[in-house]
């Protein structure tokens, strides 16, 4: 079975690389890079295997005796192992550039056994390092690379990038009145496919996806021969449930509002993905329908969504044109949703410790 493997550089990536001779040849030169230990541990806990790969110029020569390398190196490994970080392999090239060896990074001699068919999951494996040679090694191995350090990423950012789960959900609801299927990808901006049988409603739902910065597929079959009530209501319920399911444990989200002008309308939306459903809706319409959508169902849609999503929504707008009034509400909600669902950290945004 192919394995997710991280090939991580040592000096300048796991431990600090000293100026001068660039050699960690004494214990007093051994310093870890910030947050490297919790990051590596989290990567390991998320199914990544770890391989250390490093160039050590002249290791074993008079300029860099092996004992001088071994003492701080073994201490480093002992500290890492005490925290649960064990490397499946440690690959060391002892040559200099002038030796023109076949193993020095970015050449692939040292990693040949990891490139055997059926060993390496190339789509989900990485080289992490602070030098161009690390990026070139990844290219030569046909896997991805992440640059660490200056003009690169820190260990917190690397951890978040490589352990972030796909925020996706598929929810369906089947009643005597409707059949609703909704699939959502919160971190994918692409064309949505929406068909509820109500053209104007489809257009409004598309505004939520576009302005929310995500993609969704919605298919609804409802009793439109009666009216649009059940179709709109059940779509709101299932959409709320799908959003809530896709958010998962909500770690790192922003939670919260947005003001959006649209021609003569000014729409305001505040959202709290709080686990406490509530709706405060204020909008006045001039007609019973906008397109083929009943205007009285617009508030009902957002109420159904709020309860399906277990969230507090304050949504209001003022205007003269019913089309603009409606569209401003959906766009404002979409923009607020974009802010609220954005993942920017690794903590739950609540003093209670949960939401």
From TrEMBL:
GO molecular function terms listed in the Swiss-Prot or TrEMBL record: histidinol-phosphatase activity; imidazoleglycerol-phosphate dehydratase activity; metal ion binding
Residues that hold Zn(2+) according to the record: 93, 95, 101, 103
Binding-site residues for Mg(2+), renumbered to this chain: 9, 11, 130
CC per GO annotation: cytoplasm
Domain of life of the native organism: Bacteria
Reactions mediated catalytically: D-erythro-1-(imidazol-4-yl)glycerol 3-phosphate = 3-(imidazol-4-yl)-2-oxopropyl phosphate + H2O; L-histidinol phosphate + H2O = L-histidinol + phosphate
NCBIfam families attached to this UniProt entry: HAD-SF-IIIA, hisB_Nterm, Histidinol-ppas, PRK00951.2-1, PRK00951.2-4, PRK05446.1
Protein name: Histidine biosynthesis bifunctional protein HisB
Organism: Candidatus Pantoea edessiphila
